[in-house]
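Tutorial handout. Part one gives the primary structure; part two gives the three-dimensional structure as tokens.
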Amino acid sequence: MNMDTFILKGSQSACRFIDREAVMVNAETSAYYSLNEMGSFVLCELLVSVRNPADIVSYLETRFGTSSQNIAGDVGELVAHLEAEGLIINGHSDLAVVSIEGADDVRTPTAYETPKLERHGELEQLILSGE
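Part two.
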């Protein structure tokens, strides 16, 4: 198993990119999440472009000139958070997702910001709230 390749956690998680941001659901817990623009870019690179975190860090450092410690730490923290929430797992590149809806619209953000994953609660709460 290639420990630098990540995939969605089977039928347990789902993802869609909307307006350059990502929305994810953990079907097992019914929790739903959003990622900011930078987090969505990193996620798209991991899952769709099948790039490993080190390559993403290198690209972002070149693009934004931010210190490698900040970007490496930020990307590592995001990947760890996605794994801890049961949304992605270490996988094999042969199992990588080829396409996720809306991924074609994801672009490198114009300025560096810390990639963030935000948990919003359970889907049942969202449905009952009528939002």
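Part three, for discussion. Helices lie at 37-47, 53-64, 68-84, 123-129. The CA atoms of residues 110 and 120 lie 26 Å apart.
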